[in-house]
Amino acid sequence: MTWLVPIRIEVLGAVRAWQAEDELPLGPPQQRGVLALLAIADGQPLSVQEIVDGLWEGDPPRSAANIVQTYVKRLRKVLEPHRPRRSPSQLLPAANNGYALRAEPTAVDLWRFRRLVRLAGDARRECAHERVAGLLAEALALWKGPPGHGNPTLSNHHRIRAVIEEHGTVAGWFAETALVTGTAAEALPVVAQVTAARPFDEPLHANLIRLYQAAGRRSHAVQVYRDCQARLRDELGLDPGPELTMAYRDLLSHPPAGPGA
């Protein structure tokens, strides 16, 4: 299936779309939220009820289904301005009592993200560490925030939480690969940024400690542990788990070399 005008959709962060170089007016946050939910589904249909549940968190208005239908009609008009009247939508077709997003595999940033991660997984199984690092770096560069950023209702949606967990997992793989390839210093800015958005992700904090250690930035590694330890204690009433504790103990067992160490 080929579109006359190339379309590009971003859902990692703010929901935006372009045809060629022209950004398209996607409407209010909930209307953009419909597009985000359909993009997260990877081309699979979502029922109207699933979309309603995502937009209103279990407390929809009586006219919710009609509102979703209106949102889809508006999105079709914006995204397919040259579609002949009364002809079926190619981009947002009706499917299984709902709708689907059908676009080229490279048209949606989340789809590109997931494809790069799949390719990295293949390379990882072949121990092609340099290729893994490059693919994961490219994937992480696409991330501008959780899907549908700016729509508070969507932030707790299970599909969006799953994408956020995917992002954390990818950052962990990237850190581990950097330790293998000896590129800890290059990986640090990316992993530190992801870790800052995941304050209770102990495995990722453990990897950040190891990266700082490998880059010779011991004081930063110690501070990462202490900050995470304090958050866990003060906000959750917990002690650090085994992985974070092990990374810190390994740091302490390898004192820096040189005078005054």
Keywords:
mainly alpha; 261 residues; 6% strand; 56% helix; 2 domains; Arc Repressor Mutant, subunit A; 10 helices; three-stranded antiparallel sheet; Serine Threonine Protein Phosphatase 5, Tetratricopeptide repeat
Could you describe the 3D structure shown?
The chain is mainly alpha-helical and 261 residues long. It folds into two domains: 7-99, Orthogonal Bundle (Arc Repressor Mutant, subunit A), CATH 1.10.10.10; 109-252, Serine Threonine Protein Phosphatase 5, Tetratricopeptide repeat, CATH 1.25.40. 56% of the residues lie in helices and 6% in strands. It has ten helices and six strands. Strands 1-2-3 form a three-stranded antiparallel β-sheet, with no helix packed on it. A hairpin with a 2-residue loop joins strand 5 (94-95) and strand 6 (98-99). Helix 9 packs antiparallel against helix 10. The mean pLDDT is 91.
Strand-helix topology:
Elements: E1 7-10, E2 16-19, E3 22-23, H1 29-40, E4 46-47, H2 48-56, H3 64-79, E5 94-95, E6 98-99, H4 109-125, H5 129-141, H6 158-181, H7 184-196, H8 202-214, H9 218-236, H10 242-252
Antiparallel strand pairs: 1-2, 2-3, 4-6, 5-6
Helix pairs in contact: 1-3, 2-3, 4-5, 5-6, 6-7, 6-8, 7-8, 8-9, 8-10, 9-10
